[in-house]
């Protein structure tokens, strides 16, 4: 029987994305490895994903971040009282100072996972460089979630990191069957014979949905597919207004932040992520795990996948290039598109399944 290891995760506001969802689905596997984990939210609010994390077995704490000494005093008291062997930092904000508070407890390990490509400029870049090097010298381990993040940290901050890639829920996302595809299309009222694109992600500027919508409008009418948009919209719904302006309202469906995105993936023929930058792209792996061919922009966090998945289509993050990539796949037969993606589910599980991610962190925790 493995000895118990107490871990405290330090996060911001708890939301259904990134680290929160990964550690939620991995909770049973960490428990099997003898990990008892708590989470402290440093967001202004605890966060909407708190109930799911509590149900998964995490004990939750809330200490809203502030620049006053009281925040760090409260954090110190929580860390001291919890008898933690590992402090796992996930926040970029105040990570240096939180790391110093964690080190003061003399734990087995302090690590920070870097969840995005932080290519800071100017004085902030220099401050982060100095802080990261001090943290490393004092024994804090830095972990990158993708080769792109790892490269960014080395180039911009001179920081060498360990690599533990993000993972997806391989128990829920798997090769779609013909029956699942038929039921999803029926549920979403998609007519037989329609070609369907799907994108997953909120409507922030970094997701670059405007370029995808403009690319849709540039396609010949006969080839124009239906686009399923899964994710939160911005205030005022600017993308809906753009869709109306482009005259493609009948071909774009905004589905909102679905509790279960699988119907959107199951109903689709092609997955598209037109982002300007990503840290990793869990939504990409979830889509590939269902057997979807994909169009990705050739940017940090997404170009990493071309090394593992043959047949992916890449485009520059502009409308013309996305249109050209769409034309390649839209002009292919259904059989040829499926042939492109036939190995994607197995590759996804092998490289980015839960087991591999948990094993990577357990090696660091107990190392």
Polypeptide structure, described:
By secondary structure, the protein is an alpha/beta fold. The chain folds into two domains: 5-167 and 352-366, 3-Layer(aba) Sandwich (Rossmann fold); 178-351, Glycogen Phosphorylase B (Rossmann fold, 3-Layer(aba) Sandwich). It is 41% helix and 16% strand. The chain contains 16 helices and 13 strands. The strands form two sheets. It has a seven-stranded parallel β-sheet, sandwiched between helices. Helix 6 (122-137) links the parallel strand 5 (109-114) and strand 6 (141-144). The protein starts with a strand and ends with a helix.
Kindly list the characteristics that best describe this protein:
single chain; 367 residues; alpha/beta; Rossmann fold; 7-stranded parallel sheet; 6-stranded parallel sheet
Short description:
Helix content is 41%, strand content 16%.
Using the alpha-carbon principal axes, give the shape. Answer: globular
User: What's the CATH superfamily of the largest domain, by name?
Assistant: Glycogen Phosphorylase B
CATH structural class of the largest domain: Alpha Beta
The major sheet is characterized as: 7 strands, parallel
The SS-based structural class is alpha/beta
Contiguous low-pLDDT stretches (5 residues minimum) are: none
Number of helical segments?
A: 16
Largest sheet strand order: 3-2-1-4-5-6-7
Helix content: 40-55%
The third-level CATH topology of the largest domain is Rossmann fold
Distance between the termini: 17 Å
For the record, the CATH architecture of the largest domain stands as: 3-Layer(aba) Sandwich
Tell me the β content: 15-25%
Work out the radius of gyration: 22 Å
Q: Based on DSSP secondary structure assignment, what is the total number of beta strands?
A: 13
Number of domains: 2
Order of helices and strands: EHHEHEHEHEHEHEHEHEHEHEHEEHHHH
Average pLDDT for all residues? 96
